Amino acid sequence: MLKPLSIESDIFLIDSSSYFYRAFYALPPLVNSKGFPTGAILGYARMLIKLKTKFNIKYGACIFDSRKSLRKELYKDYKANRIEMPEDLVKQVDYITLISNFLGFKTFKLEGYEADDLIAFITEKLSKSSKTACIVTSDKDLKQLLSPNVCIYDAQKDVLITDELFENTYGIKPEAFKYILALMGDTSDNIPGIKGIGEKTALSLIRTYGSLDGIYKDLDLMKQSKIKELLAAHKEDVYNSLKLASFYKDLPFEQSYFVPQLSLNSAGNCNINSNSNNIIDSSSIINNNDNNINSADIGKDFTVQNYTENSKNLNSGENADCNNRNIGYNISYIYDKDKRIENLEDFALEQPNDEGLYKIFREFEFYSLIKQLNLDSNLKSDRIESLNNSHSSGYTEAPCSIKELSKICENELAVYIDCADIINKSDSIGCESGVKQLNLKKRGCNNNADSGENLFNDTNKIEEKVYLFSNKNGYFNINLEDFLKNKEIIAELTDETVRKIGFDINSIRRYLKYYDISLNNGFFDIAIASYLLNPIIHNHTFEDLINEFSEKLDGLREITADAKENKAFLSYFIFRLQLREIEKDNELKKIFFDIDMPLATILANIEETGFMVDKDKLFVLSAELEIEAQKMAAAIYKIAGRKFNINSPKQLSEVMFDELKFQRIKKNSTDIEVLLKLKNDLELLSDAYLKDGNESASVYKDYLLFLDSIISYRNKIKLKTSFTDVLLKKLDRNGRIHTSFSQIKTSTGRLASKDPNLQNIPIAGIEGKKIRQAFIAPEGKLLISADYSQIDLRVMASISKDSSLIESFKNNEDIHLKTASEVFGIKSEDIDADMRRKAKVINFGIIYGMSPYGLSKELNITQKEAKIYIDSFFEKHSAVKYYMENIVKEAKKNGYVKTLFGRRCYIKDINSSAKNISPFAERAAINAPIQGTAADIIKVAMINIYNELKNRQLKTEMILQIHDELIFEAEMNEVEVLEDIIESKMTDKTLLGDVPLVINIGKGKNWDEAH
Q: Which parts of the sequence belong to the 5'-3' exonuclease domain (predicted)?
């Protein structure tokens, strides 16, 4: 029996290589904002932290495989079935060893040997002194080490395996397990064994004969002729397999102990090393060849772009296997041959290197781990240096003192309004939710549950704080009541000459608007700047920005606790750093100041104006949808023969597949793809039976009705719950809907509408038209809709410089007709509607990088036909093909692609080695510059139209943007001039250069009429 685990005496030996491999493949490909892969590091770090905490480990070691194994010399195909370590994983290995050491564990690796060999050596050594060991692994090979003193813990399955459990399971002693592997082979390590002998036979043989020697000693007496023949024919193979499955007994263990050493440039050019007790000073190593660390390299910048080429592993004077994989740190491995690791005490864990962990986790953006380990609050650095000497986040300018900061701050006012108390939630993003509640109340929202009425009564005191930072007043925070009385501050906010800085300025605008205060000259939004500089990050919260810049903040001279608590001061601090970074790139500078910031003001105006809705029409439509859904439900129940919850996929699946016996296509899935496939198959069968006069045709008709009813029911319910009911709840007292726009949510720069999302209002179908008909112009006004015609294809023509496409657009040709003629080899006049439809799918499919498989699905043709269509297109438009191939190469090289305006679109997973992921990334790389350029074009058009309306002092309002479409609420007497302005600004030749832009303008009393 395994002795009880003792904190004082037991050791945990962690098969680290096994776990970082599993972490790499278990998690989806993850990268930080700089494009460096982090999935294996994150998964491994979580595992090790959890393990250490769960078992309160006092003694332990993390043990790694070397890249080369001596077993290859015994059998050249050993592990030959395994793919090379993916490059994305190779890059992460250094950091996994470093984190192991920073968490306090001793780290071991021995050239030519595997982690299993070292684990076997250590367990044997410790067992002689009756110490117990727990091996943490999910590999089966190590089961042969099980004994009363050794157990195995599988962290993935949370299972403890003892020698007793092993014997009860297999009926053999653990040390005999190597014979099982030798006989049946091991596919994971490509140990050949004997083909024809499986686990069951191997176990039977070892239970009977005890060992390989026992088998071959009594082979002549064996009765099983087939097994006997196999054993006789493969004796040499099975003994060679035994060597591969056994652990090396004699190995130079004293050469295996190494210490990862990290050098980085922080305040004071300090070296952050692993635990001080483990370090061998690199300066004491004689620099007699290039394999040694040059002390001049210590303290180099540690940005992604500037990682050192001089970081070497030291192992008996030869390069080891982890060179140049870091992302900006100098990592070296120092092997201590003089360090004696013999007793349990030698494996005692050191104190965690919190500073090292904090640096690494911040670099990889593992903020959840920083919080979990409380690293940010534990660090108490006494290094106070100028921020100009710190390069941790890639930003190189920062003010050196508050006094100097105030001098820079002339005519600039930073604002932050904390609305946490309104929504009982700490540090809400830009106080947006609180702002929404305020404005809903002011507008008289119909839905009391959402209006926040209970939050704004006399008995519930609001304690929102307004944070400010300016050159006149320094930094301070003020409660709402005092703020509203302070005319001087309000004058600053409304003053056009004072540039405003803040996080999510439009939310601040909405908040102040509730109190009839206008925030003018929103100069710099740090959330939008964060998105422009790091668009690959999904969230750009204030907390994330503080985490990103906290190290620079710690280095600011004369900083006080009050300043650190002042969110306006922090906003201004971040602004200065971001501004310097933006100013380095003229394209980014132009996008930010000429497009993104002016657009923010326009979007705030659109949100405030809102879109008029016919409440009665919407209410009637909602009731109609409910009635129609109930009719569909009745039809479904009749065919099913009973009532059930149609909205439950599980119950619907039981009715369809268990009771009505529909064919299962994707297990028990009832998604729309399955329903349409079943419907299509049944239609074909039904038609065939009708022609034959078969009585089964009526059964198929019932089944078709069932499927049609399910599809229709779901559609009605979705329209009701997602659109009509939601829109009714969001109406203000004036009958208007106020959406919110985000400029920082999409990877291509497209705007995102939310709360409610008006970009998702359906355009197709009778109900979709009815919903749009409910969006109306007020009495005496007209809705004007203007949308770009085939803008994606026009951008593709321009960006690829395809002369044929460009000429077609210049000549105002029907591009789909032209493609149909080219692909099908038929004159334009002979092209029918179906051919043109297919050509349209081909044209837009090309833009999205559609494969022959994807196109075959869209057109319901074979992949061979689809490939012919695509090849025919590229034959006529080779420039498009050249663009697609080269943009993918550019994405792989840089990690991002650019729009024609210079906006960077970072492509997640573009360098992933996973075959099921990289094609998606490549398609995204092809489409992003096209979609991103189209988004930039309409943004510029919006700005130009808005400015023209203001300059002419017209009353017409821009009230919505839906990707390629703009909607205006126009005064009747301004319609004609508005149409001229729209036409002029949206088709301006400077927007797309050599390719003309075309728009369709419509007008009407409702959105459906105007579109």
A: 9-263
